[in-house]
Amino acid sequence: MARRLKREGIYVFHNFIAQIWREHDLKPHRQGTFKLSTDPDFAEKVIDVVGLYLAPPVGAVVLSVDEKTQIQALDRIQPVLPISFGSTEQRTHNYVRHGTTNLFAALDVAGPP
Question: When comparing pLDDT for 53 and 105, which is higher?
Answer without folding.
Answer: 53
